[in-house]
Predict the 3D structure of the following.
Amino acid sequence: MRFSIITITKNNPNGLHKTKQSIESQTYSDFEWIVIDGDKEPDNGIYDAMNKGITRARGDYTIFMNAGDEFASSDVLETLSHINADFIYGDTLEDGYTKPATHISYLNCGMVTHHQAMVYRTEILKNLRFDERYNLAADYNLTLQFIKLSNCIYYINKPLCIFETGGVSQQNAARSRQQEIVIRKEMNIRSPFTPYRQWLAHAIKTTCPPLYRLIKFDFKKYAPYKAKA
């Protein structure tokens, strides 16, 4: 089984180096690393660059790990290599804690985990592209479409990535939620109370992170995590 790891970067050499070290630390070696560098190859934004990555992907499965993102441990690809499914997803490490993924049925209400912890069968992914109209939520739109084409979905009860906070979507959370509302309308998904739940969760997360973790995070996984130096 071969993996295509797609990394988007622009003027972020430190983040790219951190991602490179994480990829090179993997115990499983059958992968290709595709780097789309906005400084070397002009594009129309992150999702245009990610679409370029899809075009170039030749692995059986595709993972999106942008500059600054890391695998949660050195055996992530090894673990994934034993799974045969169309869509694989797992937990994330965020702000020093394990953040468990939500059940896939929740996808109609929002992302079930960070996209760095999602693994797509490339054969299906090749039929899709990130819709650049949604400059903050195109990953949500693509994942909804992907799940409709998937016959087998597998959840891994372990962290797959270390999520680097402070990205564009987090900085523009309100606009991202508005784009998700439009996406759900276009796909005839009815979830009228979702925007209010998302707004409340974001408000709690920004004003009182400990309370957010208490509500959101799985108690059995509520343990501090320290990345390797």
